[in-house]
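Notes from hallway chat w/ T.B., transcribed later so I don't forget. T.B. wanted the structure written out for a chain they're using in a teaching module, and asked if we could keep both sequence and structure tokens in one place. Agreed to drop them here.
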Amino acid sequence: VQLQASGGGSVQNGGSRRLSCAASGSIFSINAMGWYRQAAGRPRELVARIISGGSIDYLDSVKGRFTISRDNAKNMVYLQMNSLKPEDTAVYYCNADVARAPGMPVKFYTYWGQGTLVTVSS
């Protein structure tokens, strides 16, 4: 299973950016898909996560500005980022909890994308 993230780049303060992440390979089912970020000198943190049933969690500092969505048919997850701030500057990673085969119970494994850099200038 591979996750390929794209959409990073440079943007001005207050601007917008849309990140995309595609999961490919031997996929039977995907439970949660999400976005994390890691700024220089700081630990990786959860930005947003969406569960297969539709439940969504956001980091408090991005609520109202970021929107996560997913396309289950395409095994993709998106992060629409609006009103970006310099403190949003980070490498953004997508991840997914993937089951590669049916089973009882189904076993999910967590996979990570390679990261895409978002730089917000003031």
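Follow-up for T.B.: DSSP finds no helices and eleven strands in the chain. Might be a good example for the class.
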